[in-house]
Every structure is written in C-alpha cells, then in structure tokens.
Design a protein that fits this description.
Length: 212
C-alpha cells in the first residue's frame, strides 16, 4: 500500500446459473494483481462479484486462495465485528464475520488464523501470517497495528465485488492525519481470544457522532 497498489477483479457472465470456477477466479485476480505483490488485503462482496446470473461455490474460492498461497501470497480477509462496539461480547472462535461470508469460508481452512482484535480482526493465510498475528491488536490503526504491517509490507488491496469505500486501510490514513470528523474512543467490553474473557482495552479512532 506504500505505493498505492489497488486492484479490482471482475468476472464476466457466460450464462444462466453457471458456477464460478476456480480457474475463472484465479484468472480475474491475476489479471489485475501485480505479480510481485505478495501481501494482499482482500475485501469482497460475493453476491456483487457473481451477479444474479452466476452461482458461487465455497470450494471454488478456497481452491483459488490455496493456489495463491502456494504461489507465495499472504492474504488477509476482514472479519470485522462491529457489534462489539455496540456492546456485544466477542469470541474469536464463535463470533462470525460481519463483513461478508468469504472470511468465514477461509477460516474453515486449518492453515488460516484470525487476528485477536474484537472489532477489526482479519482472517490471515499465507507465509507472512506471523507478521500480522504478532501485531499490536489494542490500537486498531496505530503504528504497530495490522494496518501498519500492511503498509510496511507494501501490501496491495484487492476488491472482489466490494466498492472502494469499503477499503478499511483508509481509516489508518484518517488516524495518521488526525481528521477532525473522527476521535479516539476506548472499548472495554469483554472479549474471549481463546483463554477466557478479558478486557482488551481496545482503542479505536471512530467517527464523531456530532459531525455529519
């Protein structure tokens, strides 16, 4: 992301109710993805990507993802749980993603992991996963956060049917530039990261309610 690597994949229609294949998904991704980009933040809207005339199959996507990992790519899928900020406790094993089904699909793979953040967790898979699992998960967008590691790794952003305004990396830039329509807020709602409930003392640069 240091050089603004952003990619948007599109898959053409071929007929009624055909299932997207692994080959088609990989072709579309490779068509827009720079060959030397080895860390990718993936935002998705599977219904938008496939459209009304194409069906989707979980394993078509998972085979494509595993092939990208085999090629040396590390992929991060937002598994955000915005309900945590509204007072709902978080459980890293049971709280589903609220940003699309693809993250939950990827998490079903034994080699995938979820970063321990009660709001902005990512499902991460690939050789550079430890860099993101070992980031600072108390500050959503701070200098040692997952988003900071994305920038350090010059990561790309791949939009699979999702619009660009869903690119969460932009919120890191908003914090970095101290935009006036956001402010810091700390959340102390209980969260379970696998060893019982704890207070994560989660610090987030949130949108101000008094500014439209």
């Amino acid at each position: 992301m240091g050089t603004g690597q952003v990619f948007s994949a599109g898959i053409p229609f071929r007929g009624e109710r055909e299932i997207l294949t692994t080959r088609e998904i990989l072709f579309a991704i490779h068509k827009v993805l720079d060959a030397d980009c080895d860390v990718i933040e993936v935002h998705s809207s599977i219904p938008t990507l496939s459209g009304l005339k194409r069906g989707t199959a979980k394993w078509s996507f998972l085979r494509a993802i595993r092939e990208l990992v085999r090629q040396g790519k590390t992929l991060l899928f937002p598994a955000f749980t915005f309900s945590y900020s509204a007072g709902k406790e978080f459980n890293i094993h049971h709280s589903p993603s609220e940003t699309g089904v693809l993250a939950d699909w990827v998490l079903s793979l034994p080699e995938a992991r979820r970063t321990p953040n009660p709001i902005f967790s990512f499902v991460v898979i690939g050789p550079k996963s430890p860099l993101f699992l070992n980031a600072d998960h108390h500050d959503a967008y701070g200098p040692r956060s997952v988003f900071a590691v994305l920038e350090e790794q010059n990561a790309g952003a791949l939009m699979l049917g999702a619009a660009w305004d869903y690119l969460s990396f932009l919120h890191k830039m908003e914090q970095q530039h101290a935009v006036p329509y956001r402010e810091f807020k700390t959340f102390n709602i209980l969260a379970d990261f696998g060893n019982g409930p704890v207070d994560p003392d989660m610090r987030v640069y949130v949108r101000r309610r008094d500014i439209n």
